[in-house]
Amino acid sequence: MPAEIKSIAGTLNLDDPLESLGKAFHRDARNVEFDGTPPNRRIKVKPGNIVVPNSLLPATGTNKTICRKYDSITKRIYFFNYNSAGNHGIYLYNTIPGTFQRLIEVGINTIGDPLAFTAESHTNFDIIYGDSVQGDILYYLDSLGRSSKINVSRALAGGYGNIQRSFLDVAKEPADIPPYVVYETDATNTVNNLR
Fold first, then answer.
1. Hey, CA dihedral for 160, 165, 169, 174, is it positive or negative?
2. Which conformational region is residue 158 in: left (phi greater than 0), alpha (psi within -120 to 50 degrees), or beta?
């Protein structure tokens, strides 16, 4: 059978019936990308996902990614890791150099378990971008529904010291200071204005 060269425009056509599909059009294309200029494009297989090993993940317990998000501004992937041994963490993957960084991990510069992750997925977290001095702030809800935040630049630089839960709380509990009351008598005041 002789080889047949087809012109491909790289245009998907799902509207017309197969019988009337033009020569440069195609009906289906999965995991492919088109190279070249129309109408003489070449189909290439698109590279798929590959496993990128993270050497920063805890070696004990079972690790499960419960949330992840790509940040197109800084070209990073943030992900939350639940660990069955309690060594939960928030990590980021720098896509340009291909390196991992630990934002926070229970047991490494933490007091107690400030993250308190469960194996259920998180869906709420976002990044508020700051300048080079202020840094970006990662806001999220933890597994207990508490609003939490962490300054990304400060955490990566080790500026928090030993991180505890109160550092991450967005809504701080007000101090419970009882009022200090003293009863005094003023003999010169004869009217108290009470009705």
1. negative
2. left
Task: Give the torsion sign (CA, 154, 159, 161, 164).
Answer: negative
Query: What pLDDT does 182 receive?
Result: 80
159-184: b (≥16 Cβ within 10 Å) or e: ebeebebebbeeeeeeeeeeeeeeee
Token pair for residue 62?
């079972």
**pLDDT higher than 70, residue 128:** yes
Residue 195 clears pLDDT 70, i.e. is over it: no
Where residue 4 falls among pLDDT bands split at 50, 70, 90? low
Q: How far is CA 159 from CA 40, 153, 156, 163, 164, in A?
A: 56, 8, 8, 10, 13
The sign of the dihedral angle between the CA atoms of 10, 51, 117, 162 is negative
